[in-house]
């Protein structure tokens, strides 16, 4: 019997469509292909476009907790078996949208979560932002980040050589291996073991 694994795909692109979302989808697809082919798992991919939650993220930083659709997005990420996180590079670092999302997560929410990081930018000169900014951020949150990070410059999309595709495949396989080697998290059903009605009555009587 195959195991179902969930991959949350966080994309901080500002446009629609965006190269950031395109890279995120390719990375998630590579990881899903490797999980199916090499580990016999069923895979569910859950995309989270931060652009859609920009205002809610600011509200969450002010109130201290997410709400509505943004809360559902946070729960998707924190409950996933693996994470793909991709940001555009602005001023040699991750975007403010990307950082704000991870700022509102509860401490420990990503402990041990296998993660694959990626970034997009105009030139290859910004590729070091992955190792000097994005990787430390996810490491601080105690995610288990795979060795291969994938940066895609504008030239990578139009190149006849598929160097980008090779990096994507390698990173996806690394994420798949970590996800497959991690025990599937227990997803408790609050209705599986209900409190007996007589116990509820007894508690109510004692309270009264």
UniProtKB/TrEMBL annotation:
EC numbers for this chain: 1.-.-.-
For this protein, the record's InterPro entries field holds: CE1759_FMN_reduct, Flavoprotein-like_sf, FMN_Rdtase-like_dom, NAD(P)H-dep_FMN_reductase
**Which Pfam families does the UniProt record give?**
FMN_red
Q: Which SUPFAM superfamilies match?
A: Flavoproteins (SSF52218)
For the region Disordered, what residue ranges are annotated?
184-208
Which stretches make up the NADPH-dependent FMN reductase-like domain? Answer: 7-156
Which keywords belong to this entry? Flavoprotein, FMN, Oxidoreductase
GO MF annotation terms:
oxidoreductase activity
Identify which top EC class this enzyme belongs to: oxidoreductase
| Domain of life from the UniProt record | Bacteria
NCBIfam families, per the entry: LLM_duo_CE1759
Q: What is this protein called?
A: CE1759 family FMN reductase
């Amino acid at each position: 019997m195959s195991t179902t694994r969930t991959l949350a795909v966080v994309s901080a692109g500002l446009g629609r469509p965006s190269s950031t979302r395109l890279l995120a989808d390719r990375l998630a697809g590579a990881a899903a292909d490797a999980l199916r082919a090499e580990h016999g798992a069923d895979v569910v991919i859950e995309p989270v476009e931060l652009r859609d939650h920009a205002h809610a993220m600011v509200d969450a930083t002010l109130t201290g907790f997410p709400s509505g659709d943004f809360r559902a997005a946070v729960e998707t990420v924190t409950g996933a078996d693996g994470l793909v996180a991709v940001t555009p590079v602005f001023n040699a670092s991750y975007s403010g949208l990307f950082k704000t999302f991870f700022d509102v997560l509860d401490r420990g929410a990503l402990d041990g979560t296998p993660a694959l990081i990626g970034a997009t930018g105009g030139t290859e000169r910004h590729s070091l932002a992955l190792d000097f900014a994005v990787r430390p951020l996810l490491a601080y949150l105690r995610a288990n980040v795979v060795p291969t990070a994938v940066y895609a410059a504008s030239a990578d999309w139009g190149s006849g050589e598929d160097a980008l595709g090779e990096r994507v495949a390698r990173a996806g396989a690394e994420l798949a291996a970590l996800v497959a080697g991690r025990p599937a998290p227990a997803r408790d059903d609050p209705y599986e073991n209900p409190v007996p009605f007589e116990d509820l009555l007894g508690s109510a009587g004692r309270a009264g």
